[in-house]
Structures are given as structure tokens and as C-alpha cells.
Amino acid sequence: MNKKQTIGINIILLGFVSLITDASSEIITPLMPFFIERVLGITIGVSLIIGFIGNLGESLSSIFKAIAGYWSDKIRRKKPFVAAGYSLSATSKLFFPLASTWEEVSIIKVFERGGKGIRDAPRDAIIAESSEKKKGRGFGIHRAFDSLGAIIGSMLAFLFILVLYPKSGEAGISELIRFIFLFAAILAFFALIPLLWVKDEKKQTTSGYKLGLRNLPRHYYYIIIITGLFALGNFTILLFLYHVCLRYSGILHYMVPILFYVLFNIIYTSFSIPGGNLADKYGKGKILTVGYGLFSLACTTFIFSESELLFILGFGLLGLSFALIDTVQRAYISDGVPPEIRGTALGTFHMIIGLATLPAGIIAGFLHGIDPTYAFIYGAIIALASMLLLMVYSKIHKTSGT
């Protein structure tokens, strides 16, 4: 098998790993607001708790991303970190059905997202190394698999509620959601199978190249600042879903938000690969700018969301914005970064994003508890500011050639 074939297989195999993992995770995600509200019986500060839990795990896992990225560069092996991360996430999910307080959910979330922290930077480095000059396309393909898994997972969550809720009723909702969470946890272990065939790139010699952030190009630091600012306004999608469910009762209280989440994931998946291709063709900075603008517009629609039509538009814009942002940010940040420290660079990027997400969730959750529109105004303003900063940077970068 030649190197080019190995490169293609790595991306496809990691794609299937992400597909299964995301299917498992996205069965849980749209049901988590209901688990907190109905199963755990939280009645005070629900928005704040949802915002906190939704972003807590991602934030605390950030330190694992930086450490895993650095050590995968140092020992020249990335696959062991990827395997360990996916294994930890799968094992942690087994404890969600057993949780009885929101504090326990928070702790489980830390470990589950900690696994994500361990695997993300080394996995992204493998994808970047396996994509050569077509990083946008490589990350787009991976993101498409990831998002397809999200569609499958959210549709399974919808089908579980559709089929089993009429039998269990509101009285049996606690047992039903715990059963669904257990199914999702078992599914996560099947994601470990494709990892057996993933291959690390051939160990590289540094030729005296000293590992460290000071060796990164200036472009890297500029983009880190801008993406970090955007992350401060990029609060958990759980708040978007909770915002919708408040308008419905009975089975619609569960089904309508999940349906909108399915729509979000369909749009997300449909534009992941095209988004990567557009970034390769027209420039990553331009496409990322569009992504930030679309997120701001999506938040704006939720400010005025008084009908299902606006919800459809809002979740559609949200899916499109994330398709562009999640695909292009990782590809953009790795531009000009030497392969020897790519894991470190991506790990640091993930750490900055992760550290910014906790205050984003807390602020948005607090604002949503006061007045739901305040949270979306906050998100829209931060995204708009990030878009304008990126536009200015792109213009200066193009003019100066730095």
C-alpha cells in the first residue's frame, strides 16, 4: 500500500470512528436539557445549569488537548492518544444513566469531554498530515462523517421518543431517558473498532528543530486571538434547544427540539465538505468570516423567534455557520505550522477555545434566565465583533504578506 492510499484510508477510518462516536453523543445531547429539567427535577436556575454543564466539559478538557498535542509531537506518535481519548469518552458515558444530581452529571461530563480533549489535537494532526495541501477538504471530509453521525444519533433520539414515550408517558420519562442514555453508551464502544487500522505517519526527525510555541508563525497567534473571542460568544446548543422546548408541552416538548436538532445536523453535514472545498479555493479567512457572520445572523433570528418558521431559519443558519467554522478554523490554524509541532499548535488552539467556552456558557445561561433574548443578543454581538476583526486581519495580512 503506497503512502497516498494510507493517507486516504486514515481520513476515512477516522471518519467512521467519529461517525459512531457522534451518533452516540448526539443521542444524548438533545435529551440532556430534559434530563436536567424533568429527570433530575431541577426547577430553579435551569438555564444557568444547562449553560454551565453544556460548556463545562469542553472547557476543562482543554488542558488535556494541549498536553496530548504536545506529547504526541514529542514522542512522534499520535494514535495512542486518539485511542485513549475515545476509550475514556465511551467508558464515561456508561455513568450518565446512573446520575441523580446535576453535580454528578457535571463530573461525568468532565471525564467524557476529557476523552475528547485527549484525542482531538493528535487526531487533527493525523488528518492535517494525511491531507497534505488539501487540508480544507481533509477536515471537511472528517467533519462530514462526524456530522452524519450526529444526524443518525439525533434521529435515533427522535425515534426513541416517538415510539416509546406514548407507552411510558410523562410518568415514565425518567426511566425512558436513562434507557436511551445506556443504549448510547454501549454504541460508543463500537467506535473503537475502526481505530485498529489507523496508521501513524512515519516518525519524523526534528533535525534539531526545537519544539515550542515560539516557533509558530505570527499568523497563528492572530487567529488564536480572533477564534478565542468568537468562542466567548459561542455558547452551548443546549440553550438553543431548551429555548425551543419551553414553548411546547406533552410529547411535543421533547420531539420539536429534537426535530430542529436533526435539521441543524442535516445542514451541518451537507455543507461540511463544500465548506472545506470553498476554503481551499477562495481562502480560509474569507470562508471563516462568512461563518462568523452567519452565526451572528442565526442568534439574531432567535431574538425574534415567535414562530416555527423563524426557528427553522435559525437552526438552518446555525448548522451552516458551524459547518464553515468547525471545518475551516482547524485548517486555518494549521497553515504555516511545521509538522513537528502541529499537534502542539492544534492542542493550544483547542485549549484557548475550550477555556473560552465555560464563561460563554455561564454568561449566556445567566442572561437566558433573566430574559431569553439577552443570551442571543450577546452571542450575536460577539460573533459580529469576531467577524469584523477577522476582516481587518485578512486585509492587513494580504497587504503586508505576513
What's the average pLDDT? 86
Report the CATH superfamily: MFS general substrate transporter like domains
Number of discrete helical segments: 16
- Total domains, how many? 1
Q: Remind me, CATH topology?
A: Growth Hormone, Chain: A
User: What sort of overall outline do the alpha carbons produce when their principal axes are compared?
Assistant: globular
Do you know the CATH architecture? Up-down Bundle
Order of helices and strands: HHHHHHHHHHHHHHHH
Q: Give the N-to-C terminal Cα separation.
A: 39 Å
List the main descriptive attributes of the protein structure presented here.
single chain, globular, mainly alpha, Growth Hormone, Chain: A, 402 residues, 16 helices
Q: Care to describe what's here?
A:
The chain is mainly α and 402 residues long. It has one domain (3-192, 214-400): Growth Hormone, Chain: A, CATH 1.20.1250.20. The protein contains 16 helices and no strands. The chain has helices at 3-28, 32-39, 46-60, 62-74, 79-93, 102-131, 135-168, 173-188, 218-233, 237-245, 252-270, 272-282, 284-303, 308-333, 342-370, 372-400. The longest helix has 34 residues, at 135-168. Residues 205-210 have low confidence and may be disordered.
Tell me the layout of helices and strands.
Layout: H1 3-28, H2 32-39, H3 46-60, H4 62-74, H5 79-93, H6 102-131, H7 135-168, H8 173-188, H9 218-233, H10 237-245, H11 252-270, H12 272-282, H13 284-303, H14 308-333, H15 342-370, H16 372-400
Helix pairs in contact: 1-6, 1-7, 1-8, 3-6, 3-10, 3-15, 4-6, 4-15, 5-6, 5-8, 6-7, 6-15, 7-8, 7-11, 7-12, 7-14, 9-15, 9-16, 10-11, 11-14, 12-13, 12-14, 13-14, 13-16, 15-16
